[in-house]
Amino acid sequence: MPEKEMSFAGYNDRICFNYIDFLAASCKKRWRFVDAIYGVIPFFGMVTRKSAVSERASSERLKELALQIISTQVSDEINIARLITLAEQQHINQFDILLPYALSGQQLSAIQQEYRKPLDLSQHDDLLSILIPATAH
């Protein structure tokens, strides 16, 4: 499967991040100084303005941004909270993350604490579904 299709796929108007692929890509990535800064302080790499590009181009941009903020140097909970923040900034309020394992209740609580805004998380085995209520924006 081509790399572009592996990292995330859209279905039924929902995006599904493949977290495993993002971590693998992060390990293989040749880091520049600015990439290291984005990894430590990811908000420098996040875009806050709304773009008027096509959905396909938007998903490619989202993938690029996600690759900048996912880091093997931090916990999965922090990486997931970063993905949620990035999705919110891109005006995506509902998406899924395919994980290598199911998260514990403690990990789900840690994600909600890290994100710091109202958030609905539901888990079905290794698929984490995220819904950002309209009031969180």
Please give a structural write-up.
The chain has 137 residues and is of the alpha+beta class. The chain has one domain. Helices cover 46% and strands 18% of the residues. The chain has a five-stranded mixed sheet with strand order 1-2-3-5-4. Strand 1 (8-11) and strand 2 form a beta hairpin. The longest helix is centred in the middle third of the chain and has 15 residues, at 55-69. It is globular and about 30 Å long. The N and C termini lie far apart (35 Å). Mean pLDDT is 75; it is low at 1-12 and 43-53.
Quick structural overview:
The chain is an alpha+beta fold and 137 residues long. Helix content is 46%, strand content 18%.
Question: What key phrases describe this protein's structure?
Answer:
single chain; about 140 residues; alpha+beta; 5-stranded mixed sheet; 6 helices; 5 strands; globular; disordered N terminus
Chain-wise SSE layout:
Elements: H1 3-7, E1 8-11, E2 14-18, H2 19-28, H3 33-40, H4 55-69, H5 76-89, E3 94-98, H6 105-115, E4 120-124, E5 127-131
Parallel strand pairs: 2-3
Antiparallel strand pairs: 1-2, 3-5, 4-5
Helix pairs in contact: 4-5, 5-6
Along the chain, the helix and strand elements come as HEEHHHHEHEE
Low-confidence spans:
1-12, 43-53
Helix count, DSSP H or I runs of 4 or more residues: 6
Strand content: 15-25%
**Can you give the helix content as a percent range?**
40-55%
User: Structural class per helix/strand content?
Assistant: alpha+beta
> Largest sheet, described in full?
5 strands, mixed
How far apart the termini lie comes to 35 Å
What is the total tally of β strands?
A: 5
Q: Provide the domain count.
A: 1
